[in-house]
Amino acid sequence: MKKPTKVTLTFDNDLAPIELPILSGKLGPDVIDIRNLGKHGIFTYDPGFLSTASCSSAITFIDGDEGLLYYRGYPIEQLAQHCDFMEVSYLLIHGELPNSDQKKSFTETITKHTMVHDQMTNLFRGFRRDAHPMAVMVGVIGSMSAFYHDAMDIRDSDSREMLAYRLIAKVPTVAAWSYKYNMGQPFMYPRNNFNYAENFMHMMFANPCEDYTPNPILAKALDRILILHADHEQNASTSTVRLAGSSGANPFACIAAGIASLWGPAHGGANEAVLKMLEEIGDISNIGKFIERAKDKSDSFRLMGFGHRVYKNIDPRATMMRQTCHEVLEELGLGDDPLFKVAMELERIALEDEYFISKRLYPNVDFYSGIVLRAMGVPTNMFTAIFALARTVGWAAQWNEMISDPEAKIGRPRQLYTGEIRRAFVTLDKR
Ligand code: SDX
Question: Would you say the CB of residue 267 lies under 6 angstroms from ligand 1?
Fold first, then answer.
């Protein structure tokens, strides 16, 4: 069928019809260009942006019905199988997979920027020891604009590239140190002889009293987890980074805003919530009552790790996370891990339940990631911090795409006003 190129709004009063163009992307649904609608004195209403494209982007594509996810056109399955996180980071930032020289140079640059300004170590000490690592990350990453003035000219492409590299390199150090501070252990400095995932494991699990060798299977699994979480179109935290960045705010503050948004249990905080839910379920015999609770509208309980705004089919990342989960548990001799068994059975039952089928609720990326990370020795309160660590490259790529877009404007949504109409002021003595 021929694709429409315009739509005409007609009104049931004497308002003149309004013609609006329809735009097509390279993939995915067409969009109605309503940029000039406001000039006619009428706006669209779409809380939560259920049907609204907030920008054009060439970075990531999702097909929710088919369960497809592409980074710069490459299917996530191919990238997760054949690349490491450095290659995928280069791809997201620069738009092409690196050749050997480009990969070597990129990796060396990232490696050389993993240290943070030593004065930043004092910032951690301002927090209580039991502060959630995500609270520490929001604060410390947000403070980085006070330490890295030299490359803050966001209108300069080289400066933007340096900002992205610094963020990709330093967020793992801040994340790992948030954990070390939580544990009351000394900070472990990055080591240039480790790859990205090994370095993070070193900063998390090593201590100054003994040598540490990362388990290569677990490092590879962590690297794959980072690839799967790297970017995801205009999700809540990415949209937060874009909106914050649209005012010209410094990118460290924008990424800190993204971290804050990701922390929510409806978003990146779900991986932590999934594990708490699985521990609460405890045994396969309890699954039924939790499924019923998830279906009960009077109960606020939701099946964490299930459902998605875009995927109305299984999240392709969940499939790969399940496989990674199985590999890691086998490697660690935890093949009969009770939580994994509960998760697998919960998935099976939910996918056969009419409620979940009718609402097209499938496992998302957060459903299995927590089990893998827990098996690797990562504490639950660090799950979302690792999600933030991975998503930093996506946030940086999306921020850079927006800032370098000549059409970029400050984000300023309108509203449907439902408050009081004009009222006469009443002085205090008469109230
Ligand atoms: C991430 O956007 C992204 O791309 C995010 C992300 C990324 O990589 O950036 O993919 C990462 O955030 C994954 C999602 C992690 N969150 C969770 O697992 C939390 C549990 N899921 C739900 O909170 C929910 O599914 C959302 C928030 C993920 C999506 O919510 P929507 O799109 O706003 O859908 P909705 O809340 O309107 O739900 C539609 C219906 C409702 O029932 P009705 O009102 O139509 O009767 O489905 C029900 C909901 O009650 N529903 C659930 C459910 N999720 C939705 N019922 C039980 N359990 C659930 N998990």
Answer: yes
